[in-house]
Amino acid sequence: MPFLNTSKLVTIERHITEEGALHPSATGEFSRLLRDLTLAIRIVARDVRRSGLNDVLGVTEDVNVHGEMVKRLDIHANEVIIRAMDHGGHLCVMASEENEDLIPIPEPYHNGKYVLVFDPLDGSSNIDVNVSIGTIFSIYQRLDPTSAAPGSLADVLQPGYKQVAAGYAMYGSSTQLVYSSGNGVDIFTFDPTIGEFLLTYEKIKIPKRGKIYSINSGNSYKWEEGLRNYVRHLLSPSDDGTRPFSLRYVGTMVADIHRTLHYGGIFMYPRDTTSPNGKLRLVYEVNPMSFLVEQAGGRATDGERRILDLEPTSLHQRVPCFIGSEEDVLEVERFLREG
Ligand code: AHM
Ligand code: MG
To answer: What is the DSSP pairing of strand 103-104 with strand 91-96?
Structure first.
């Protein structure tokens, strides 16, 4: 598959402005929000690239709200994004995987009509070993767009289908920004020589069926029977050549979803006997990725229900997820039902 499918020379700013012009109610506020966010991402990308050189690697003594050790680069990325976003006048509240509570807009800045949630550096266990990591984000409109009051928990806990936009940056062999505002998924690649994200893939479509599955098999002894049967099925050769599937698992959701968007197949983080809701967070990780995959023509469920229809009940809640090619996700759902 080609990784460049457009000959247009378009920066992400131009692209977002043009998309905004399609909406009669657009005020330019949203474009400015995204401009600030892409600045933050450019700074994080630069710092990730330098992280082996300056002394930002290593584990802090801190433990994050999920009880995991936090790497210093995570904290740094979190701070960069907050500092880039808290004073623009477009947001009324933020929430980050690294902060236990809501992040308010500080005085004297204006509370705008959007909500930003993000995972500043996803794949933290891969930071020290120079394996791809990323930033995931999602944007909602606040429940009362006319309000100038600080945003509330209810503004953040909206179901995923209400996302106005979502995306991720992947700090891989190049830095790419994958983005959708509900009009398909576009991919931008950062050109460090000119400091711009350029459109490199327009309206990516995930194949209806793939040949790759992605899951932490080390947990298989804790899976439910239906899931074990499904994976056994994927590994059994078929006469028509559609099986066996290959296993690919980076351990950075951003990278595993990125590959799935291009090649198809299925990414799974299921529940098991010790983690009844899996590991990944609905608000910061699973909702934005599900939005993108659906926008690319794929499917995302918790094994039964569409992820984007779930009503979040708490900021850091976890949810099992099965995300990828439509036919592959439908198939795992069948196996899970049959047990
Ligand atoms: P993080 O937010 O601490 O980086 O954790 C999330 C990551 C995902 O990127 C990845 O899919 C998953 O954890 C891998 O978990 P595991 O090591 O249990 O397979
Ligand atoms: Mg994460």
So the answer is: antiparallel
Residue in the block written with tokens 């880039």? 84
How many Å apart are CA 330 and CA 324, to the nearest integer? 10
Give the residues surrounding ligand 1 with Cβ less than 6 Å away.
68, 97, 119, 122-125, 216, 251-253, 256, 279
Distance CA 312, CA 8 (A): 39
Ligand nearest to the CA of 70: 1
pTM, to two decimals = 0.94
Distance 240 CA to ligand 2 centre (A): 37
For ligand 1, atom 4, the nearest C-alpha belongs to 123
Q: How far is the CA of 241 from the centre of ligand 2 (A)?
A: 35
Ligand 1 center to residue 211 CA distance, Å?
Answer: 22
**Residue from 103, 71, 73 nearest 85 by CA:** 103
* CB-based contacts of 152, cutoff 8 Å, min separation 6: 93, 102, 143
Q: Sign of dihedral through CA atoms 337, 321, 203, 114?
A: positive
Asked whether residue 21 carries a pLDDT value surpassing 70, the answer given is no
Nearest-CA residue for atom 6 of ligand 1: 123
**pLDDT tens digits, one per residue of 316-332:** 999 999 999 999 999 99
123 Cα to the center of ligand 2, angstroms: 6
User: Please, what are the domains in the chain?
Assistant: 12-201 (3.30.540.10), 212-338 (3.40.190.80)
Query: How many residues appear in the chain?
Result: 339
Q: Is 143 exposed, middle or buried (0-12, 13-18, 19+ CB in 10 A)?
A: middle
Residue whose pair of structure tokens reads 């997820």 in the numeric block = 321
